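Predict the assembly for these four chains.
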Amino acid sequence: MNTVRVEELEGKSRLDRDSYEPAYAQIVRILSEEIASGRYRPGDQLPSESQLCARFDVSSMTIRRAMNIMVDRGTVIASQGKGVFVRGLDMGEAAFKLRERNDAGVRAAFAAAQREVRLLQAAILPADDRVARKLDIAQGSRVVYLRRLVHIAGDPVMYHREYLRYDPRQPSVEAELQITSLEGLFRGQDGQGLRRGDLTVEAVVLTEEEAEILQCPAGSPAFCLEHIFYDFENRPVAWGRFICRADRYSLVGRIGADIS
Amino acid sequence: MNTVRVEELEGKSRLDRDSYEPAYAQIVRILSEEIASGRYRPGDQLPSESQLCARFDVSSMTIRRAMNIMVDRGTVIASQGKGVFVRGLDMGEAAFKLRERNDAGVRAAFAAAQREVRLLQAAILPADDRVARKLDIAQGSRVVYLRRLVHIAGDPVMYHREYLRYDPRQPSVEAELQITSLEGLFRGQDGQGLRRGDLTVEAVVLTEEEAEILQCPAGSPAFCLEHIFYDFENRPVAWGRFICRADRYSLVGRIGADIS
DNA sequence: TAGTGGTCTAGACCACTCC
DNA sequence: GAGTGGTCTAGACCACTAA
């Protein structure tokens, strides 16, 4: 133990080559811990690739793989010909994930467990101006309109309204309908036939209708998660909004050295 | 051109070795495009490593690097001994970033440009129960209390209240004060002396005080961005909240194949 | 010119899966 | 056992930076 400590101080900490944790991951962890502990401060230059090769007794490719991971995570920034430097915190780069709030902590907002989804309405309607614009179709075209309510332990927590392109000639329509259903959107079998989606979260207050459905006072705060999904031809095929009760959902994020 | 098309159909598309875009990046781009175009659908297995080596005429390490990037992005999922498979959309994994909404589109919420930050109040106070708990200090300990208002083009858009540990014996206190100031938090010189931060975004409605300061009606929706920053010893050193006008900020994200 | 990071090779060995 | 992905080596060459 003492020997290890001395080696660490000398910058010669060895990797555990018998560990299940690969060498590159150990290097990422060790360097991240040293950054987190203040050994390397924001703006400091990390040892060069060849120095790290010597310190950890690995090849340059292994060091490079570790460096790539740390650059991807935003922990460090690499500059060709100059070196690798420790980055500081940057609030503007913080990424958030929607999480369910409950007494036991936070959990993924779209996990399948303990959720019940009720279909309130399914109809085929002519697209109004707004829907036609969002789905890039002619006004008056027929669209599928769906309203759903997500319950947790009997409480309504998310109110979902969605418009889908309706084109019975396209076989993809069935896939789209399947995807945006419970089975797809909430159970992890997502995305069959869909290519990508753009999401926006806004802060809103509940309208009378939304408040009644979510069993909250009108004027209560909520998240509005608007989504547009596109097919493989880059056409918008689904547009809708989740209204999420603010007392049940939050967005969480973290910035800085991740030592998990 | 026709030759290239035939090669692509035969799965022998060559890389542009003279391009500035490295081989691994070209491979990621080509495979992502093929996924986005529907050639590979969610659940499909990608060609094996050796097949991709032959197709692109590169070594296995280059293929592996490309695969690692696509796994990191969530485009595919790799399973040892089985293969690499295309993933579908997963709303639960969507990550959002706080962005400023204006007529010109969206921009980073904490960028420095065109912002003015006014210090409304700076005081040293005894910590009440709530602050003491958040900063993990004894109730009644002295803390620094700061109130700031962020303006864009003369309009107040963010109201910031923050509590900082006050310990003049610790040299880090100066650094902490510096970090959480304008110069630090808003100008990119962030994080000197700070290790990491936990962030939470909630939907709220403006209180009377907040509404007056932000020049909005009381009851208007807003984001509340709560932050706790920790030092290198993992002690909380700053706790505060940004109240962000909902008409000025949103959170944006994307899921699915990124072909940017 | 010396040092840095960036990319890449042509293998090797291992663990795992499925037949 | 054959095929898969996961890791790693010991170099090589290149582009960039700074003295």
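The radius of gyration of chain B is 25 Å. The first strand of chain B starts at residue 76 and ends at 79.
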